[in-house]
Amino acid sequence: MAFLPDKPYNALPLLPPPPEQWETLAVYRILAEARAAIAELKGRMPVIPNPLMLINTLVLQEAKDSSSIENIFTTSDKLYKAFASTNTQTDPQTKEVLRYRTALYEAWQQLQHQDFAIELLENIYRTIKDTKDGVRDVEVFIGNRFQVVYTPPCCRDLLLEKLNNLLAFIRENDQIDPLVKMAILHYQFEAIHPFTDGNGRAGRVLNVLYLTQAGVLEQPVLYLSQYINAFKADYYRLLQQVTMHGHWEAWIMYMLTAVKETAIETLRKVNAIHDLLKYTVEMVRTNAPDVYSRELIDMLFVQPYCKISFLVDAGIASRNTASKYLNRLVELGLLEKEQMGSESLYLNKKLYELLSNESKLHKI
Can you list the domains of the chain with their CATH numbers? Predict the structure, then answer.
């Protein structure tokens, strides 16, 4: 049956797509560049001693950018403050972005001891949207009341069939490079559109989780949403071209370029975090040896905002001593103190600026 934008696309082809639609020299050329960039990133990740540093910093930025693709906006400052403080009045948009980070982190933890399953996908969606429903049993459409651009398959039984095919594709087809598989998976998940809302964000969580499960990354820190945001019109246009014309090549090239560019950008951030960490260690060792410990410095990099209870809970210092340590670092100019109600937050400003600064990304 031909594709019609205003009719459920129940004839959405199952995976895998025919090789002749995507196996081209152009795809393999960009694939080689993407693999080189991501291998360099993976090899460099161990210079950051605490994995939570990257997960809490880069993943929160990914959460912010991924949510903004769906017109859910917050600022980096609101996001980091809400993540650190119990006293902030968090707006609904910021809460929703924080739930994206929670969904990604919890699913990554679950995948350490289980495989991808429909329940895992549903849990990602439920966490992002703070809801109890799962795979939809109602018709939805993409567009507005003036123009429908896509009506995904319907309803639940058919969606489960297509999702089970997608999960089988993850487990099988090992002859397809994982980066190409990720691009194919992302299109298919968006085309299935299994939930009433939050499909884009759930799909972008699936991207990075698949890459960690496939061994391409050790941690889920690839920052793909920054690229998609920069070239959003191309993203939606190329998705539609696959649906309407089976143009897989251009779509896969777009996603491989996203991997390459964001791997380069993430590597830059990892190196900058490492350099800033070394600078902070030397600064405190030299100018405040009485408060120096490596555990204290590492705590300043778990996220941009620190507070007394973080040090107490980590067993680094008692409450009074923790207050003394942090205020000493304020005197050194390494932290900035900010009062949030009855709670003091201490901002690692250089880390905040480093994370908020975005480099120029490039198209194919």
Answer: 19-269 (1.10.3290.10), 270-355 (1.10.10.10)
